[in-house]
């Protein structure tokens, strides 16, 4: 967003793609795989064939960024991606995450030891049936391991050609600045949506450094109710759209680096989500949506992103 001479913000045209890593173009509205697994991201959610069909439909509809993680399932989401899409078509980027170990549907354990990160990445390579992961994201920084060691492990994997781009998940602006001083970072994945903008400072850093920002819970995790619902319904009515479509369209208008990856196991919901890319919000729409009061934040280290 730039400033006009009259002091008011001017919105740039909505870009359809983003150059991940400076040279890997992806369509900004992607697809996330967490909803293909069961409650707590543990085990299967439904029929395997249905999950495979939704993934294939996403790519048929033009999605070029698939976001997954090794602990969704655990392992299951990556296996579904490979079953549906490998060998991967040209132009498709698969992003996955490592650094968190699951022992139950409610237990998440951060592990950023270099040897564990390497083992996790190599296991993801096998499950995804690929020699190179387009974007590998550190799911959480491990407070017990120096950042230099964690990022150093990812640097080694990048030099070996096992990953192409490196991302961080759930970081503060200070942590991102420090990481950038240590190595090349290509993306951030923090919670950010119409009702939770606590990571605005991180978003601004991503804009400054040309990093992709993959907002998790882009639909506010089902919280588009109350006062938000009224404002969304007003805008949605003008566009013949749904609340969810307007919330996603707001993200695409909010910043050219935002690359939301909403997930679903429903073909109809997938089509609805992808339809958000066609919506062009007016200045009036944006003023009303920008003015919505955000919700109180959830736990900033909520492991579900």
What's the CATH architecture name?
Alpha-Beta Barrel
Number of beta-strand segments? 13
Using the coordinates above, name the CATH class: Alpha Beta
CATH H-level homologous superfamily name: NADP-dependent oxidoreductase domain
Structural class by SSE content: alpha/beta
Query: Main beta sheet, described?
Result: 7 strands, parallel
Which stretches are low in confidence, meaning pLDDT under 50 for 5 or more residues running? 1-10, 296-301
Q: Note the beta-strand portion.
A: 15-25%
* CATH domain fold name: TIM Barrel
Helix content: 25-40%
Please identify the oligomeric state. single chain
How many angstroms separate the termini?
26 Å
Count of spatially separate domains: 1
Order of helices and strands: EEEEEHEHEEEHEHEHEHEHHHH
Average predicted local confidence, pLDDT:
92
- The dominant shape is globular
With strands numbered from the N-terminus, the spatial order across the biggest sheet is 5-6-7-10-11-12-13
Count of DSSP-assigned helices: 10
Task: Calculate Rg over CA atoms.
Answer: 18 Å
